[in-house]
Structure formats: C-alpha cells, structure tokens
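Sample pair:
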Amino acid sequence: MQVKDPTMRVLVSVPTYRRPVELEEFLQSVCPQLPKANAALLVIDNDAEGTGRATVDRFTRLFSVSYVVEPLPGIASVRNRALEEFRSGNWDALIFVDDDEYAADDWLEQILSYAMRSDSGIVTGPVLSILPTDAPSWIVRGGFHQRTVRATGSRDWTAPSNNTLLKRREWERAGSPRFDPNFSRTGGSDTDFFARLVRGGAVAEYCAEAVVYEKVPPSRLTRAWLARRALRMGVVNGRVLRASHGRSYLVARGVASLAVGCLNSFVDILRGKYPVARNWNRIRYGYALAASQFGWTLHEYARG
C-alpha cells in the first residue's frame, strides 16, 4: 500500500465527565505519543464546573494538550464540540477516543500510518476489554465484553467513536455533518454519524494494529447491565438502519436473530456452555431490533 498522505496534522479529542482517575491514565498513555505524530490532544469536559481541569493541567506544560468545557450535557454535544474545534483549526484528521480507555504504546503511530496509506476516510481500531481478576467466571468463559478483532482492511457500514480517525476531506465532502443530539439519551449518535458518512460514499476501514484498552468496571459485570447493553444496541441499530431499510425487513431480521439466538442458546445449555455471549446477545438484540420498529426505545444515559 503506497502512502497517500505523506504528512497528516491530527487532533485527538477525548470527552470526560468526572472521571479523574481514568482521565489521568488515558493522558499518561497518549501524551508521550503526540510529539512524534505531529498531533495535539483536546480534552472536552462535559462538566460545567470544569472538574477535569486540574488533571489536564498537569500535562499541558509538557505536551500539546488543550482543555475546554462543553456545558451542554450529552455525548453528542461533546462530539460536536470536537468537530467545531476541528473545523476551526488547521487539522487534516480528527481522532475520537474515550476517557475510560488507555492506548497501546504504538497506537497513534499505527492508526496514522494506516490512514496515510489508505484512501479510506474513516479508520477504526480495536478496543480490547480488560476484565478485573475477580470477574465472574461465566463472563470470562462466555466471552462477554470481548469485541471481535477483525482483519486489517475490512470494511463496515458504520464505526464507533471510541477509537476512530476521521479525515477532514471526507467530512467536508459530506457537508460537515454533526452528531445527532436525539441519540444522547439512548446512545448511538456515533453509529448514526458514521453510518450517514458511509451511506454518502465514505469508506470505513479497520486497522487491527491500532489498539486501545478499556478496563471494565464492576458495575458492568452483571446480567442486568449486559442485557440492557444488548437491548440498547438493537434499538440504536433499528433507528439508524431505518434510513436505508424498510420496517418489514428489520422486523424480520430482528425475529431471525432472536430465533437463532434461542436455538443456539439451547444447544449451549445441552453442551454445558451457557451462556455464550454471541448467542445470549442475539436474543436481546433481535428483540430490540424488531421492537424498535414499533416505537420501543431504551434510555441508557441520564444526561442529554
């Protein structure tokens, strides 16, 4: 693959909201990578009181790090603030990451190297979950929280905002769209945003070498939390996919996912392996995908 963009000025944006410990760990992992990559980091605090400033100030003296407060609550508002800062600056690409992650030592080099060699306007990398040592055995055995690591160069119909690079020329070619605040309560504004870009002709490619890590907190190690997350994904995808698919198709797809999940889970029970995340999630995802076509929704976030 030949280099398409020999140089790329990059802004890394990270939202935060009252997570000083996680934010500091994120900054410690990313800031040392900035100088070599010709990159800067923007921390966007969604706390109107600016409680993250003290943490960020410890890094601004040594690295190209800036801090702003976005008082309008909701993840879509924060991501849109990142786009505004990106639009007004002299940047070629914007990277979205989360404050509860930390990056591999070569993360920034890997995602930028791939982006500079590729024609794709969107590059996304894996988020590997780190479970606590005392995580329930059924979560470890069933593969819960572990996202699939796809092959480098594979393409998808959308992208998340937890480890994704967006090129300016692709964003501007699409009319400089924004994240939809109507998704702030349910989540999924990133799914909607990148799906709109892909439907408009953008290409979203995967770079398996650009790795970030996410520590899973104890609050997410319950059946109730995992079920709610699977339901939420079905609701979000149901809303987003309605822009390109009919209701009947999505209902049928949801019912099929539910049926396959039930059948495979029955087999898992017989084999003594229940629950297996893939099949367990299919049941809830399929139900929510179908139910969302009749107005059913789920609010995961209190703010926004």
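The chain has a mean pLDDT of 95.
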